């Protein structure tokens, strides 16, 4: 594969391959818009007929996070295309993997005797289509729905399933970009979420005492409206056991478009 620098052209190509290309598309758009330093490493196949795109994401984690996209017709060349890009025998994670690509990735690990190092999350992918009208809700008295400052995202981090040594710096970085949103009352965050550098929204959290007030729905509607204003397409991965999140995102207007997998290194 070769590193690509004409990101607008790649963006336009990926936009034609929705919904399966949603993470690759939005990851490229985030790099264009926010100009991450150092920049993401973005690769395309040297074969002009191949659709393979690999993005080494911006992250604070020691283990790199990758976005991989290809059309189903191109999966037979996955082993060749990815062999020098993915560090198979070192910690990594892969996000937004279409189901048709999963067996090829699992085969690569099996060849190296590393299949037991794989932790797999089966997810629904929900996308907020551009034509969808967001719900209007009355904000409760004494509440404000707004962007969060970096110090405010500790609320999210404390409640996040994927909390780690690097999760708080990651969330603070997103807040600095204007990509963290919350409901605040009495000077305290009550509900919040963030959008990440690879495009997805997530880490939605609401304090126990302030649930069933519609705060999460209000914050989501506010935040995704901002993302839309930045010409970004909001999307989310929801693990298949999480019916509450499934229902919540549907209420805001998200549509379940397809399923995808997250692959995480656990050795």
UniProtKB/TrEMBL annotation:
GO MF annotations in UniProt: acyltransferase activity, transferring groups other than amino-acyl groups
Pfam families in alphabetical order: FR47
InterPro entries from the UniProt entry: Acyl_CoA_acyltransferase, GCN5-like_dom, GNAT_acetyltra_YdfB-like, GNAT_dom
Span of domain N-acetyltransferase: 137-267
Name of this chain's protein: N-acetyltransferase domain-containing protein
